[in-house]
Design goal:
The chain has 468 residues and is of the alpha+beta class. Helices cover 50% and strands 17% of the residues. The protein is built from 11 helices and 14 strands. The protein has a 5-stranded antiparallel beta sheet with strand order 1-5-4-3-2, with helices on one face.
Length: 468
Amino acid sequence: MTDRLPLRVLASLWVALAMVAGGMAVWLWMESDAAWRTHLDRAYVAGLALHDSLENGSALPAGLSISQLRDAPDLPPGWRQTLITLTGGGRPDLSRGDRLSLRIQSPDLLYPVAEVQSLGGGSQAAGLASVTRTLARFCSQPRLFVQQDAGPWIRVDGDAVWGCGAGPSDRRLLAGAVGVGALALLLGWVAEVSSAFAAFAAALRDHRARTATLPVGGVDELRQTAEAVNAYVAQDRAALENRAMVLSGVSHDLGTPATRLRLRSALIEDPALREKLERDIDEMTAMIDGVLTYTRAEIGSEPFRQLSLTSLAEAVVADYQDVGMAVTLRPAPVRTAGAGNLFARAITRPKVESSAILMRGQPTALRRALTNLIDNALKYGREAVVTVDGDASDARIAVEDRGSVLTPQDLQRLTGAFQRGGNIGLSPGVGLGLAIVSTIAAQHGGRLEFDRGPEGLEARLILCRNWA
């Protein structure tokens, strides 16, 4: 239910959560660091008290006990031993006072002697305190043996002070995990919101945006945007359908008066007048049919299905050839491909593929688009040459005319509605042919392009083979 909240509220909640988690992580880190410093200070103070007990016979600090050995301590097999000697000055190079010999035996490690001596300061007590503090720094179960001058060795048991169990729990890892976890959650939420907006933008750019309902989800602002766009799309589609319905009704209603006009015009004795009247009637009906066709192409309600673009072009060209029009189908150029490997030179050989260009599309719309291109080529040139080609992603229909004086810029202008060429003469039409072709191309994820060929202008209809 949180995705129904406004974005500003969700952002405020996440920022507050991040601040709380950050504060908790800092508190855990500082508290753990303070507890660790207290543990080391306690071990240092215990070392000072141990030296005073050895020197003056005072009471041992809590957690420490001593026992006298008859012989020098033996090193157990596999253990490591660190030897340290402290004088009255706290360092071996100062010879005044009694010498204090230390043996630290550990099953895990050798202790850093240089660091122990540098922390010793100027007294033997400080040196011993630095030793106990160093023992508390590392998690081990060491044995500490002490000898004053040539006296007996004394074992000091201080697991309660410097053993592994004596150290405080280190919650710095937990603090880091809290901070990183809060950051990961915040970044994850940001990525989720961003991906929701990106998915909505992709759906809005998709070719089905005008015919399909966009998904409604995500934060409240995105949900409201999707609902508004869906309402606009529904209104736009309803307006297109209503326009098509009105035009269809007008076309149907004009059919009867147009038929009566044709019959009455046949009774006119003046041939020139009769021809002009019939031409006006044909232009009127063609205009209505053209606008109706353009509106239906905008709606694009015809379902997509698998088809052979090659077979469709062959059928359209055959229809023109049956009535003696100069329309031909030119085979697609044969491509070659190189085949080789690391040890042999590539050999050029014919590309093996089926001559049929298969794709998903709207058959009626594609037939109308090809027919319009051929009619345009015959209208502005002397003949039309059709070529069907394609690759793995796109299918192409090229229609080239002969002797057209139009430029590619002229044809780009003619893709607008109700635009006609300057050399059209008395040819029938209302200027919607290329506009319909361009609309159909966009509905198939493609485009309409023009180029100057060796003998005339070439119109290329580029279509996506798996657009829907």
